[in-house]
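Hello, quick one for you while I still have it in my head. My current little project is about how a certain protein chain folds up. You're getting the sequence in one-letter code plus the fold written as tokens. Would you mind checking whether the tokens look sensible for this chain? Here's the protein in full, and shout if anything looks odd to you:
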Amino acid sequence: MYWPIGTPRIYATTTARPPSRNNSLVVSHDGLPTGTFADAASQSGSESTIAKGGELNLDDPATYPLTPGPPLTPATPFIRSIEHDVSRSGTSKAGIQYLGTSDPAIVPTGEPIVSLKVSRTGHLFAVVTASTLTIWQTKPTVILAIVVRSESSMRAYGSSVDLLIRPDSAIFVLQTSSDYLITYSLATDPDARVYKPRFVDHANIQRRRQSHFGGPGNSAPDQILLGPGEGAGVRDLSVRFRRTIKVDAGIKCALALDDELVVATKKPATIQCIRWTPDSAASQISTEIISRMGWLDKKASIQQMTHDRPMNLSTWVTSDGKAYAVQRIPHTLPALEADPKKLFKGYCFHTPQSPTNHAIRAIVNARFSLIAVGCADGNIHVYSARDYAGTIPPSHVHKATVSPSQSGRLTTLSYSPDGYCLFAGYEAGWATWSVFGKSASNSFNADGSMAHINGEDWLTGITDACWVGGACELLLIGHQSESIWSLEMARSAVTGCYSPPNLFRTVLQSSSSIMVYRGYDLPDLTSISAEPFLWHTTRIPSNYLLNQWPIRCTVISADGRYVAVAGRRGLAHYSVNSGRWKTFSNIAMENEFQVRGGMCWYQHILVTAIEANRSYELRLYSREAALDSSNVMFTQQMPAPIVLITPSGEDSLLVYTYDNLLYHFVFAPVSGIVQPIQVGQIAFNGIVRSPARVRGLSWILPEKQMMDGDPSQDVAYASVLFLVDGKLVLLQPSMNQGGQLKYDMRVISHSVEFYTSMRDQSSNYMLSENGDHFSWDVDQGGLRNSLWVFEGQSLKLWPDAHDVLYAASYDSNKELPPTVSISLDFYPLSILLGKGIVLGVEPDLVQRRDINYSFFRFSIRTHLFLPDILQFHLRANDATAALTLARKYQDLEYFAHGLEVLLHHVLDEEVDLAPPPEAALLPRVLTLLSSFKQYLDIVVQCTRKTEVRSWRTLFAYLPPPQELFEESLQRGSLKTAGGYLLILHTFEELEAASEQSVRLLSRAIKEEDWELCKELARFLAAMDESGETLREAMELVNLEVKKETDGPETMAKLEVPSFRSNGHSRLRRQNSETGSEAQSASDVSSSGTASPV
């Protein structure tokens, strides 16, 4: 559901021009006295050795000597365009001199970035090179501080190789090549800002409350230079050196947690936990030897560690290629239960079967309860974490798009914050997948030479990557590169708001705009084209993005007329028809609430689930009124936070809350104002363990209850569908012996990325579409009750959801009805039921020689699902259902093409399998085709696109080609009859072919189809190299035409052309036995074709 868009922005620390004198930076000696070198390192009072076991209060400034000389707040250096950077071929000693008051600082240029880390909140990120630490602000993307390590520090402690950030961003830790940990503290003033623009004379600035494009005219004068998320300005912060820690046992890897720093050592192989703040109840440093961990191999060492805070779960990758799920044993356990020497407990869930399956990286996806393990062969094995007791079975595998020799070694893994996208960086490129394994995009198809010439390191290899801005952007670090590349990502609106309209109408959101697919109401052939005009793109107002970036939630109305977006706080909505946005004119009103739980549209009314002042509400806003707190149509207080809201049917609203209650509201006018009225609720205590894990829900009502029943009784009849993690769960109501309502639960699908019930779409179409083509009673009756599920690799559906309900209601062990499986080579976004297609997008990397950069764009992809469903019905020997469904779509302009695809697929299968006649599917398909007027054309078109060897199989179940030729001629389909003429020739019915060609040529002359006459003449010329067949046919045609007309013009057109044999027709005729259509119908001359159509 994520696709790269555009070309990335480039950021770098150093430039070719030195800054002005007032931008002072000073070298950090990291606790060493000025002028000392490596031989003095062991005498430094700021250095601590873990083996000594001393108290290391990393949070108390008083316990550390301050670095002599440096100012408390290093100033931000002057930043110019990346185009002026020093060439990569420059010497490593090149640098930029920063003049300070005590000691000059040099920021080396040309040093590649070795590590990138983002703070938990995402407002900061930091990079390190061998000798520098640079702290950046995310928005605006500027440098807040640079720490340059002195030459003495480099000699004493070694170069920097990795960076750790404590989750609260208060402490930064550098890991060095000489097994040192250098800690720095960061302090910020929340009210202090620097570089704030100010305009003295701004009386002529015009402002508009509504805007077509959200330009800077909406902003205050001092904000017109600021972009999305930059309203808070540039923060002021202070970085101080704190302490250097020597790890005598050597450092394999380290991990910064909330309470402690976890270090995996080399020899001996141990895990050492260093608390940030000394605890009076326990030692500050705790150590556990790996060989004494019973659940780990004694000879193993830790190669990589990650930690996920929402799941409170860590992953360890060991030297023998295994991966473990690990938890810290709590300090609060009673002394009798806890062994003080045991710090961790874990379970091995990935054991390599071969060296290619050795684990290299591991990452946790808390949103879907998954753990991804990157292996040596480039594939990524994903496991499902069901509990904390070691039940972690395999889920699926993300297959590498290229071979290991082409991709290189895996370097980094990262899930998007919402868990929907997995990014993998390799030594020679990168790739992304959806959460359950659908390939989305990659850079391996890029032209490496062009990327190298343009200096686009982000295409040719990745060292590290991080998501920022709620997954709006992806930060990339290339190999041996000093640049940071920020790649913008577009994603489906379903990722932020799981709502039926978002599933039925494709909406994409990027960092600052939304894109709405508008082909639903266009002609059939237009809607399936890849033309850019099918996208309605609009920029979100800059005055809203200024302080509320990133956009977290986007929702479209059922009829596609309105779109609403919500960022950090507040909201804005847009009319697709008028092209106008509406935002809060009062910033205080906008900041008063936050959308949490989603949004949806009911006609022109926006329903929002909000949190304001620790209260939880449903608020209704009218699109017709200005956005203002005084214009709220209705407010419904809720007792608990809302997980999600979703419309159902024509006037129902389902609201699911964190107290595990599902509320049913019905929209009704009260005193002239539309309000949601609660008519029922269901408690799922004991059924749904974690409400926060529910991503989507809907319910299915019996037909009678939906049409004539009392809405207050819907909760007693509704079958509820929950999407929990990747499982689609069906809850069906029943009565227990005491007459109380209970629910029977069954998981009906796994690895589900999204699902949609077409019953939720039916009411939308009945309300918004007037044409007969979109009438549910006329065209969509066959799939009105269908249930669609996308399982990562394929799109599946049950043609009738009632079959699923029936199978799951009586016996939990009874098999569910089979599904129709639709294979797609792109990611599906919506199902256009009225047009019979699945809609999706596919990214495309564009590299051109007339520009010096590459960029991504995405194109529309469609797939006709009708052949797959028809084949499913025919395979089940349900010809009635297939015929009923086909008739629903017979008015589509590409209906005949769909039937041709069906015939082509079945024919290819049966040519290879050769099933017995009683088990053959081909005769059922041909029987279905014979029910439609395009039958003869479909058969001819299929033969033109298949090999000649398949024709015998096809015509074994068809009337002789002679009969089909006659029928085509009777219907007046001359081109179709010409196709059967070619088949007669291929089957060596030469006399019939010659005779029928004369009849067809005469008919073509009568109807003045001169193009067909030309093709027939070429066809007859190709039948023998002497040309006698053509001459005889022309004489017969001339005699026949003379009886009806003596027109000289017509006779002139039928003169036999000069004929010259090239001696190839006999060979070509022999090849027609086994060759393709082109071989059997080749022209005797060097140009043209012998095909009569």
In short: DSSP finds 26 helices and 59 strands in the chain. The two ends are 44 Å apart (CA to CA). The longest helix spans residues 895-913. Residues 276 and 1086 are 84 Å apart (CA to CA).
